[in-house]
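Reposting from the mailing list since nobody answered there.

I have sequence plus structure tokens for a pair of proteins and want to know whether others read the tokens the same way I do. The first protein:
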Amino acid sequence: MSRVGEKIKSARIELGISQKLLGKKLGVSEKFINEVELGRKIASQGIIDKLSKILGKNINDITMSFEEQAYEEEKNEKFSPVPKKEKIQVQDVWSEAFSSVLKKIPIYGYDINKIINFKQLPIINNKVEGYAQDKVIYLQIESNDMEGFRIQDGDLALAHITGEIENNSICLVEYGGKREVRQIKKMDNKKVLLISGKNSIRTETIEIKDLKIIAKLDKLEIKL
């Protein structure tokens, strides 16, 4: 159990609040409260602030940075030999802790079927880049059709899954039995213009009913 977990547990028991009730008041699961008290998860500042109000005392002094707790554990290891199994357990706990602030984002091709690789991005307010964690992906660009937009074969584009048509957005779309990255420009309630191009602009007029939006591109990582 970590210092943080011990103090949270002590304050909770002092008030006679169960893990289940505390979790309900915080809007989190009983399992989350248990893992925080056991030191397997790190409580965010937002959770700490809510705990202060619920427990009726300022407990901000129990917050610690990852570096501080890692230093304490390293110091304890130097002066108190720890069995090999326990060291591995500590490493597992810290792996879980960091996984709660970083998200492994899958990299896909246009078929969004097989994962090519992963990249990590920070989780902020339970979201990644402002979107739900399970909606964010990376797309590996598969052609130079959008070279005129500085999007080339091999580049990585951060995107989020959506089915909505957004005017002037650049999206992975499906039409005519194929998937391509195109800029979308609305013409009316029935048709859109799909724009691509290398040295010159190329346009295609498509009826909205024949177009499927797969994902909207948000950021581009250029391949050097």
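The second protein, same order (residues first, tokens after):
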Amino acid sequence: MATVRLGEAGSAALAAGCASPEVVARYRAKLVQVDGSGCQWWTGAVSGRGHGRFWLARGRVLVAHRFAFALANGVAALAAAEVLGHRCDNPLCQRVGPGHVVTSSYVENRREWAARRDVTGSPLGDVRGSRRRARELRDLARTDPALVAADLVRLRRVFGEQPSLW
């Protein structure tokens, strides 16, 4: 994901949102836990790249995991982050920390993506594409998180843990 500069007004709106129990509750209402996954799954709107979209305030939309990062680490830490990367390769993931959403650089994020996209069974290589995959899994998570867990098990059975041939 590219760096998005908030600007003074955006930073103030984000800080107000992080401090607002109503905004935080609205954000957290869109999270579910899926058995067998360490991710916190987003069930709200999804962007063209498969990332969650969160309406922070009237006229202010933010990538959901950026809100999660600001909530966990502060607005200043988000402003200092060049890029946030999903080490779990799940663009719907909202869990901030090792193995999930972490600070990164554009170069490091692209290098990790390139190294993992061709690994057999990697979500980065899903033939549905990132947006369609995210929307389908999000819709399953909205219905019942157990359906997402079943789909992840099914995909592991289909792809196994074998290395790709080429």
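Reply #1 (J.P.):
I read it the same way you do. The CA atoms of residues 50 and 131 lie 4 Å apart.
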